[in-house]
Amino acid sequence: MAVKYVLKLYVTGVTFRSQAAFKSLKKIMSENYKGAYSLKVIDVMKHPKLAEDDKILATPTLIKILPLPVARIIGNLSDKEKVLLSLDLVAVR
Amino acid sequence: MKKQTNKAGQDNMDLQALKESEARFRSIVLWSPDAIIVTDAEGKIEYMNPAAEGVFDRKLESFIGKDFGLPLVDGESTEIDIFRPGKDPGAGDMHVVETEWLNKKAHLITIRDISERKRAEEALRESEERYRVQFEQTIDALFLADTQTGIILECNRAAMELIGREKSEMVGQHQRILHPSEERDGRFSKSFKQHITGETLVETKIIKKSGEIRDVAVRASTFDLKGKKVILAIFRDITERKKSEEALLRAAQEWRTTFDSITDLVSLIDREFRLVRVNKAFAHAFGMEPKEVVGKTCYELVRGTGESWFSCPHKKTVETGKPNIVEFFEPRLKIYLEVSTSPIFDDKGEVVATVHTAKDITQRKEIEKSQRLSQLGKLVADMAHEVNNPLMIISGNAQLSLMEGVRDEEVKKNLKIIFEECKRAKDIIQRLLKFSRPSRGEIKEVDINKSIEAVVSIVEHQFKLINVEIKRNYLKDPPLISIDEQQMQEVFMNLINNASEAMPGGGAITITTSLEGDFFRIDLKDTGCGMSEEVKKKLFEPFFTTKEKGTGLGLAVCYGIIKAHNGELKFESELNKGATATVLLPLREGGVERSV
Amino acid sequence: MYKILVVDDEPGIIKIFETFLIKNGFEVIKAAGGEEAIKVLNSDTKIDLMLLDMKMPKVPGIDVINEMVRINKRIPAIILTGSIDAERYLIDLKASGYSREDILYKPTDLFELLKLIKNKLSIAERLNFDG
Prior knowledge:
CATH architecture of chain C: 3-Layer(aba) Sandwich
Number of strands of chain A: 5
Number of strands of chain C: 5
Number of helices of chain C: 5
CATH topology of chain A: Glutaredoxin
Helix content of chain A: 25-40%
Order of helices and strands of chain C: EHEHEHEHEH
CATH topology of chain C: Rossmann fold
Number of helices of chain A: 3
Number of domains of chain A: 1
Distance between the termini of chain A: 24 Å
Largest sheet of chain C: 5 strands, parallel
Strand content of chain A: 25-35%
Largest sheet of chain A: 4 strands, mixed
CATH superfamily of chain C: Response regulator
CATH class of chain C: Alpha Beta
Oligomer: heterotrimer
Largest interface: A-B, 35 and 27 residues
Strand content of chain C: 15-25%
């Protein structure tokens, strides 16, 4: 089965915020796109170069690589509706 | 063309207003300390204010036109981490407003740098954590409670162990649940109230969940915490300590009781002859309580003198470090004492005090005396016997010689003298034996008045010749007493003779019989020369006599006879004021022993 | 001739009695203690009277008396002693048929002794005591 969504999540360290962001995202993705997504978590502390290359300013930042177009979400990922909306909204366009 | 001119004017005014408004907004944006980012609807960065560079701590020109991202906010704002490559991340508070920018939908994002605040929060949290750890780890049980409501606000692990309850069972509950009901005073526990009124250290009891009651010492202090007056209490379990304290107290009491139950007079005397501690027997002997005696010097108390006597055993022990025993007669208490002193050493081996024990040995001495007397009696009797044989031989040979027929008158006379003197010697010995070993007579119930009278009548006539008058004061209807009459009469004879001998120039002897408690009392009073202290002390000593030709056995024997009857013989006298001999005989039967 | 047994542990005393008694026409048998006295009593020797000292070591006078009672040979006896001693045995003596009158206290007046001896012997003769 083709992976529908390819996501990159940038977080800062193993803070409560980072964990929460990851957990929320995982929940949303596994509930809605079970098996059809791939999520990569990058710690800006560990991989600052990657963060710089991706022009990350703040975390948590979620980058949707696929499906195109590439899109970003930054901030609070706990609201499922908002997250899905943001991801799909971009895709629809 | 009026319209055109108005429009130009209007346009001018609008432009001015716009310029002013723009200037205002520009200053807001330019001067805001917070980062202001404007993105389009997709999140591309259209504009970043100068502050943004400060907040993100880097040059941001390359970011214009790049994706910032769709800002998702929970409520009004949301916290984000600010990425500062090569440096510590910051913390930001992101605020998003959807707006229009150049007639297009845009996001106005404000990011406030809250790194400092976060750092402070973290420091506080760390500090709080440290204190929490201390609170939790303390070995003593800690309780934090509201002084007004008495509700437990916090407690540590040790507290849980002490009370045997989980934190959840205690926090939120009233502090009184920690204590057994006896410790309560109204709604609060007694100790709680004491603490609130200022007592820092209170001893009280707690009750565990299991119901077991433990003794605790509580140290508490009150202070303000976020506007509330709270109390921090440290509970320490002292049950074991209390037990050993009680055991110690009990042991001390047991020792005190033992010490006081010893009938010997025991005292602890220090180097300065001061009585450090005495038992009850000692204090009572002087008619005082132990408290009154402690601190006095031993010689001041016992002898009423200002210094110790030269044979003082305590002094000797202090000097030599060795125990000491002496026997003597204590005139103040009128008893014979055996005093032993043992040294008490300090760590350096110096004598700091002695244990001084005085035992009343008067009875023992009396028994010893009776024994000595009876032994003496036996000795005398044995010796008398031994003398009899040589006397027999002397006498017999003299008699035989006389029978041979002696021509020489001188020799004959001498032989006769030998014979006569031997007879005399025999008489003396007979008398000696009679008195030294009381003869075994019969015991019968006797009217003592009559017994005495029998003796008196024998001597009365002789006494008249030497001007000695006998007065009688007999008890009317006297009870009959079981005695060995023969022996008793020997006693009376002895006493009467002594009395008369004390009055060489004549005088009066008054004989009184009476009842005294369980005894029959016979007083024999003379108006003679009396006895000095010296004489009185030696009265009953065998072989002691004030008479020229006295054997000195009379009173010793009388004493023996009377003692054998379980009676008493006493003398009262003062020099030149006469003397009174008092004989006490028990009224009850069974009080008479046979003498050997 | 009457035979008199003299019992005393003191040789000096035995000598006196022996001399005195022989002088007065008696035959004397000596015993230097209770043991010897008992031997004599148990023998066939005919004894008319005994002078017995009470206080003797080993076998005292009272044992001799008791032996006499035992073998049923009640000889008239004069008991010689230092005063008080006899009192002690008075009860036993009385039980054996003797009384206070049979006691003489040392040192004895020899003539008193003689009188007592003659008295006893005559009584004995009259009463026909076994010898």
